[in-house]
Amino acid sequence: MSKEIVFHIGYPKTATSTLQTFFTKLGEMGKINYFGKDYNVKPKKRLNHHFRNLILGENIYNPKHENKEFISSKKNLISDEWYTCSSLKYALETKQNLQAQYFPLRFKNLFSKNIDLKILVTIRNQIEIIYSYFVQIYFRYKNYLKYETFSDFLKSEINKDYNGELNQFYYFDILSQYADCFGWANIYILFFEDIKHDINDYAEEITKILGLTKKDKKNLLSHFNDVNKKKREKTKSGKLRRKTRKNLLGETMVDIYRKYEISPLQKLKPIAKYFYRKIGRKKREKNIRKPNSKERKMIFDEFKNNNIRLADKFNLNKAKMKKYNYI
């Protein structure tokens, strides 16, 4: 009898970390066997790194040899967005170019025939995810990048197809390869935008895919609500602290700006606010400004036909995709 594994492959910038913290809780409660990212464990000791090594190796995965818990009748879940957005980080670390299109066939070759593999993925419209992706790599790898602004990044990468940094965002081309390997009915595609506009439907889909209960769904909704509440509670000063941590004056003004509501230094609020807006963020805000209307259209036009094919082949909700700027 084959065992089922659900492989959650991302995408990055689609509330993946929020899901992974919830999946970790489900694993701790014994609801599922969770083998994905666990933020309570040091990165190199996480089981998802073990699977990365297997994916990049030449071995065939055998659950009896790798981990006896895979034999359990519980749902087995792996979660790691590395497989949909790994090319830049991997290239910088290994000097080799590894694209998202590499993985579907490796997945097929890796897992033995007695494994029923299902792919779970959350996508986000390319206008938003590409910008969010750029902001992330700008702050993490800016010393390695050949471009300094989002405009430069877009002009450099938009027409390179599989050879460029945007290759992973041609959703149909990538997910159809997974479908060819594991069956079209075994690919579950969710919309990131539903988390904001239709969270109940999003939670319902997760519940069905993982075979969870109504109580688990309620807990997932509560989890998202708690995470969003914490995000709202983060002050602007917290963001500024990360951006100006090397500047002593900046640190001082951040502290004033953060505490002005309860501090006798409240009168210094205008000065701190001016520093926050005009000095600390000026250069980086310019470099990571959001795409203008021309750039948004450029991205939309580039990916529209690919998204239409995605909708047709996977029978996705076109009304939602139009509302969410996919098509």
TrEMBL record:
The keyword Transferase applies. SUPFAM superfamilies: P-loop containing nucleoside triphosphate hydrolases. Transmembrane segments: none annotated. Pfam families: Sulfotransfer_1. It comes from the Bacteria. Residues 6-243 form the Sulfotransferase domain. Keywords: Transferase. GO terms for molecular function: sulfotransferase activity. InterPro entries: P-loop_NTPase (IPR027417), Sulfotransferase_dom (IPR000863). This is Sulfotransferase domain-containing protein. It comes from Halarsenatibacter silvermanii. The lineage of its organism: Bacteria, Bacillati, Bacillota, Clostridia, Halanaerobiales.
